[in-house]
Structures are given as structure tokens and as C-alpha cells.
Amino acid sequence: MTISPLAPAQFPDLPTIEGVRFAAGAAGVKYKDRTDVMLAELSAGTSIAGVFTRSSTRSAPVLDCQAKLGKTASGRAAILVNSGNANAFTGAAGEKSVEAICASVAMATGIDQKRIFTASTGVIGERLPDDRITAQMAELNAGLSDNGLEAAAKAIMTTDTFPKGASAEVEIDGKVVKIAGIAKGSGMIAPDMATMLVYLFTDAKISQPALQALLGALTDQTFNCITVDSDTSTSDSLLCAATGASGVEVSESAGFTQALHGVMLDLAHQVVRDGEGATKFVEVRVTGAASDAEARKVGLSIANSPLVKTAIAGEDPNWGRIVMAVGKSGATADRDLLTIRFGDIIVAESGWVSPNYSEEAGAAYMKQQDLMISVDLGIGGGLGTVWTCDLTHGYISINADYRS
Fold it and tell me: What is the pLDDT of residues 280-293, one digit of tens each?
């Protein structure tokens, strides 16, 4: 597999989070001898919050997690994730698979099934061979380690070309609080209340309701602002676990909020940089909208446009496609108030191409790997930023052959 040209140089050195242990193994869910299952064990008293897809065809693991979240906060907890099969649109068999996996985790670890959260990612509509996963449970439990987060990140990959990790440390009241997270995602990326699969771990102390509220707010600023192909997954899941091991209460801490936001945004950007077939990372910044919601609407319209994305792939500064995307968004816009920029280059203004714009300058800018498209609607104070990638033939090749 060719690694994305937008990938970071290496997987980051993530800190150990007290109260969490990880293990990864090869269950052969889809491919033989490929690491495809990960187990995370969480210490007693860990607060767990989650945000999930709002798809009408949510997978069995998503529905199970949603039913369990916030119901009990005592005792240890566990997260079990497999790649290779999404266990989505599998009817009653999907529910039985979740039950079997949770029962197996409970037997191996002694953790209450009500505190076991699962996720599956991969092909939709094929029955999950849960027996292959449960057969690995004793070995996974025996292999739990404080420093197994990188292996866990690799185990949850599907069409990803690189594992994704990010971390932060913040000092609060003289004590250090640590955050570390992993994510997977490359295609079927247009989150709706969550994203692909993301797991965040911190030793901060915070109640489940407070963590849930914070996670929801930060998701809207990060994962809900990225798109690769405008398609929302059946399996989008984001879980955040706070062990409380640091003893530092963070529910009122702006520093912790900022640090968690940074980790989430880093992971969200990495997902875009690993977009299937991507060669360009694009930030779409919208200002001057009637509201923040309208700015977001315009940003997503531009970021999801196949015509815009293919022009970027071809390094063609076709700004007319930006005009088109603004117009079709449904947001309030006025031709004569609109300003479009590529980076610092003013492309269009006052209802026409800028008198100082040259096609040569626009074409030269489009050759860069990281691009900024800015649109000012000139109507109000609404702001919004969305991140996306280009659309290349590589995307077609990957998805045309996905099940073969």
C-alpha cells in the first residue's frame, strides 16, 4: 500500500495514560495475518463519553454503545474494536455478534458487560465472523500493556495508509494532565455528529455528563468540519475515556478544553490527509456570512463539490467552480459582495474577477500541497472553516476494488 503523500513523517510518541492498557492482535476478520482487533482496558471510575453517527442505518455496535453510555459509571470498562467488517446492516445476526463479543470480553477480563463498548469497521452487509475475534480474547487480555496505543491505532485501520495518533499535555494547578488519541478514517468521510472511529484517553478527572457536553461541543468544531467524499458512515464512533488518575478536576478548565480541542483537530486533519487518493490538503475558510451555520453550509458546499475537488487535483485555478458552489449552497449570498481568495491572492471581488488577478498566479498557487480557499460573503459576521482534500482517480480505484 502506498502511503499518502500528505502523511506525517512518523507516528507520534504518545504519552502513557495512567489507568489505560492496550492490546492488539490478528483475528483474521478479513485478511489473514493482519492486525485487526484491539482491546483497551480502563480502570474503575473512568468516565466515558461518546458521539456517534446519526445515520438511519447505524451499525449494531453503534446502537449498543448508544444504549450503554452514561448508564453506569462504576467499575472497570473496556473497548473492543475490529477492522475488516463493519457489522452493519446485518440484522439480528449483528446484535448477536455484539453480544458474543461483549460476553467474551467480560469472561476474559472480569468487566461488567454494561461497561464494554465495541466498534466494527469495514465492509457493510456481511456477517461478522465474531468467533474469530472471541478466539483471540484470552491472548488479548494477557497482552494488555500501558504502551500499546500505536499497535491499537494500526489494528483499527481499513483503507487507511497510515496510523493516526495525537497527544497533548497541559499543566493545571501545578499538575500535568495528559491526553492521547488515535483515529481511523480515509473514505466514507462526512461526519454527522461524530467521525469514523476515534478513541481519546486522558488521566483528567471529570464527570460523565460534563465530559459528554464538552465532547459534543468540540466534535462540532473538529470532526464535524471535515469531509473527504460527502458520505457519512454507518459506523462513525467517537469515545473519550477519562480515568481520573491524575486527580486533577478539569470540568471548568479552559486549558484542558483547549488541549483536547487540539488533539481532536490534529486527528481530524490526519483523516483528511489520508483521504482516499488525496494529494492536496485544503482548508476552506468562510467569513462574512449571515450566521455561523450559513458559513458552514457554504464551506461544506465548496468542500464537497466534485467539480471543485477535481479542479484542485488537476491544479486548475477554476474559481468559477467556487462561485457555483457558493450559489448552490442555499446560504444567503450576493454576487456583488462576494470575495474569493486562493491563499493571499484575491481572485474575484465586486461581482467580477479581480483586476489584479492573473491566471498564472492562480495556477502557481494550486501546485502547493496545502491550500487555502477563502470566501467572504460580505453580508454579516458568520464564520466557518471546513477541511477537505482533492478528488483523484486514486479514489475511484480504491473504492471500485474495495470488496475484491
Answer: 999 999 999 999 99
